[in-house]
Design a protein that fits this description.
Blueprint lengths: L1 H10 L9 H24 L3 E5 L7 E5 L4 E6 L9 H11 L7 E3 L5 H4 L2 H5 L5 E4 L3 H9 L5 E3 L5 E4 L2 E6 L13 E6 L2 E5 L5 H6 L9 E3 L11 H7 L3 E4 L12 H9 L4 E3 H4 L2 E5 L4 E5 L6 H7 L1 H16 L6 E3 L2 E3 L1
Parallel strand pairs: 3-4, 4-5, 5-6, 10-11, 11-12, 12-13
Antiparallel strand pairs: 1-2, 1-14, 2-3, 7-8, 8-9, 9-10, 14-15, 16-17
Length: 333
């Protein structure tokens, strides 16, 4: 709207002096509405975008809000020639991510945390994970971010997102030292499971793990996601973050069979690309990069902008403007 106002003013600058008070007030009020209404709407009806980023063989979840953004896991690779970090930064810059305040890590395997090295070059976020994780970051990746240690049952709120920490490690094996995060965003919930094993899953069955969306553990490995766990979580969607034709054979057919048997829809980053969930207080929509264009997804994503535009047009109409807008003797159509 500001862009068109600038064009309008520039093109019609020699008519500006002929504006009467009625038209001046109309334009001023329209400008005010275009600036203040989106702020109000994003407080009343915050829209959050949740992206399961196609990072290859690894995990990376980006949560974008009107004010603050954060990430759970960063992806990465133990292979020096892998361009996972470069690809991630290219994606973040492409979507215009200006600030990344926090990075939560489930654990410290390369495919979940190594891209922090690349992220720090542009964002330098606060990192949150298990106790003594700052020492691991320093020793393994030579990164010295401001660090916050998390504890079991801790609750954190960032903007309109509530994050519950489930930290019940069952062994010294890195995968089973993963922190599980449960996210509450508007009226949906997500369970982010890192690389936990079936034994770890059984250890948290009595916790509050029922969720609308499940990020399937360990890229769909057969050692995780047993039927009992899936029946407890009862997800409406299972997301598998996995690399195309990866050397581990993930996701294993046993995991896919269990999900299909329970009629749980599946989306995979290797087949579907980036998977985006858009959530507001009233509507939710899910779309992957390789899905067909969805007008519904666009309407959910842009609902506050659409409401702003409709309100301004209704105001313009109700000001008595008919058959064009008059500035002096010149009619602008």
């Amino acid at each position: 709207i500001l862009y068109y106002i600038i064009l309008f003013t520039t093109y019609n600058r020699h008519y500006i002096k002929t504006l009467n008070n009625f038209n001046k007030k109309t334009l001023t009020n329209m400008l005010f509405l275009s600036l203040i209404l989106p702020l109000i709407l994003n407080i009343i009806n915050p829209i959050t975008k949740i992206n399961f980023v196609d990072i290859g063989q690894g995990d990376c979840l980006l949560v974008r809000q009107y004010i603050k953004s954060f990430m759970i896991d960063t992806g990465g690779s133990y292979k020096s020639e892998d361009k996972s970090g470069e690809n991630l930064m290219e994606y973040l810059h492409k979507i215009g991510l200006n600030n990344l305040e926090y990075v939560f890590l489930t654990h410290f395997d390369e495919d979940h945390s190594k891209n922090l090295i690349n992220i720090n070059k542009s964002y330098n976020p606060i990192v949150l994970s298990r106790i003594n994780g700052d020492k691991i970051l320093k020793k393994k990746y030579n990164q010295g971010n401001v660090y916050v240690s998390l504890r079991n049952k801790q609750n954190i709120r960032i903007g309109n997102v509530d994050i519950k920490i489930i930290d019940k490690p069952i062994s010294n094996e890195e995968n089973d030292k993963s922190i599980v995060y449960k996210l509450y965003i508007n009226n949906i919930s997500l369970l982010i499971t890192g690389d936990i094993s079936g034994e770890y899953e059984r250890n948290i069955l009595k916790d509050d793990i029922k969720s609308d969306i499940l990020k399937v553990s360990h890229h769909g490995s057969k050692s995780s996601s047993d039927s009992h766990f899936l029946k407890t979580v009862r997800p409406k969607l299972a997301v598998i973050s996995v690399g195309l034709r990866n050397e581990y054979g993930h996701p294993h057919h046993q995991t896919l069979d269990r999900l299909n048997k329970l009629n749980i829809p599946i989306k995979r980053t290797d087949l579907d690309g980036n998977i985006e969930v858009v959530s507001s207080k009233f509507f939710n929509s899910i779309r992957a990069n390789r899905d067909k264009y969805s007008i519904i997804h666009f309407l959910v994503e842009e609902q506050n902008s659409i409401i702003t535009t409709v309100v301004i047009l209704l105001y313009f109409k109700n000001r008595g403007v008919k058959n064009g807008f008059f500035i002096g003797e010149t009619k602008i159509r």
